[in-house]
Amino acid sequence: MNIAIVCYPTFGGSGVLATELGKALADMGHSIHFITYQQPVRLGGFHANIFYHEVRVPTYPLFDFPPYETALASTMVDVVNNHAIDLLHVHYAIPHASAAYMAKQILAKQGKHIPVITTLHGTDITLVGRDKTYSPVVTFSMEESDVLTAVSNNLKAETYKYFDIVKPIEVIYNFVDVKRFHKKPITAFKKLIAPDGERIIIHASNFRKVKRVDDVIKTFLLIAKEIPAKLLLIGDGPERPEIESMTRNCTAKDDIKFLGKQEQMEDLLPIADLFLLPSEYESFGLAALEAMAAEVPVISSNAGGLPEIIINGDCGYMSNVGDVADMAANAIKILKDDAVYATFKANALLQAQRFDIENIVPQYEAMYQRIINEL
Ligand code: GMT
Q1: Radius of gyration, CA atoms only, the chain
Q2: DSSP code at position 209
Q3: Angle formed by the axes of helices 93-109 and 68-82, to 10°?
Q4: Distance 284 CA to ligand 1 centre (A)
Q5: ipTM of the complex
Q6: Candidates 3.50.50.60, 3.90.650.10, 3.30.70.360, 3.40.50.2000; correct CATH number of 2-175+356-374?
Q7: Nearest Cα residue to atom 4 of ligand 1
Q8: What's the gap in Å between 149 CA and the centre of ligand 1?
Q9: Tell me: the pLDDT tens digits for 97-126?
Q10: Which CATH architecture has domain 178-354?
Q11: Strands 116-120, 256-260: pairing kind
């Protein structure tokens, strides 16, 4: 198949998932055409079946807000016409689903019917999409998609709760390439971070309010009172300055390091002993799944779709949002006893394997085939 994938090219989970999906489909022999404004961060090197089409948004003195959605729809039309595209798969509804609707209408006038698949990822529904400035357009373009998918049952339920739509939503869980993440930790690197064998705790996110990074710090400080530990904070975003100043005044400030945005999560995660994700909401929590694939137990909140991936008391623990005392107590339970820790590690890997790329990507492939056959 010739598949066009539209996504955000950034570190966000939706862009990461879309890029990994495209790479996996390309390995299976499909031709993948990424359409976005910048090379996706996880794309990596050259692949004979992968093509990247940059959306250019010409500026003009009249435009206070350059019309990205118009440029995106026009690029979709161009790519479909010139690369014999069979379907458009857009990740994150805003503005990709409405741009795809526009492209589809233009192509229909030219006598081409191109199916549009929209995958909902989370904030496009639960935060941004339900805002009334966007919701009429999001509702319409979801309804007009040929197939609508969500990355968890929770996100499916949230979509029906916030939007007046009747379109069936198929749940296809996010996935991870376990082989890539399940590596031996780089010992020299581990030693550099934790020279005296301290436990290494990692949090990775876009440092937005919804991630509650302040709870990561509070939880870490409680853990560090009981167990020698180091905290690595990966990623960047609006809350980072606030979090940095919060850590400057705390007792364990020398044990907390900000690493900024990192592309090679598969090298960093294996050095961790625990992953913290205390988010206010996660439709899925791809970062937690990648941690589990690296054999790292997860301490998280029980919000959104997290209970669909984490088995409480097995590969990690979940607490109510904001209950940092419970999160710390659970972390200590896992970390203080080597035998318990070994069991949680092994279970984390087992659980990640259920979401392995090899189990999930064929679900997308079968759905594409079905929609093309239905034409
Ligand atoms: O978490 C974010 O703020 C980024 C966001 C995105 O759209 O890139 O992530 C969402 O999609 C990911 C991939 O499906 C999910 O794993 C995240 O849980 C989800 N984030 C939220 O729901 C807050």
Answers
A1: 21
A2: G
A3: 50
A4: 7
A5: 0.96
A6: 3.40.50.2000
A7: 12
A8: 14
A9: 999 999 999 999 999 999 999 999 998 888
A10: 3-Layer(aba) Sandwich (3.40)
A11: unpaired
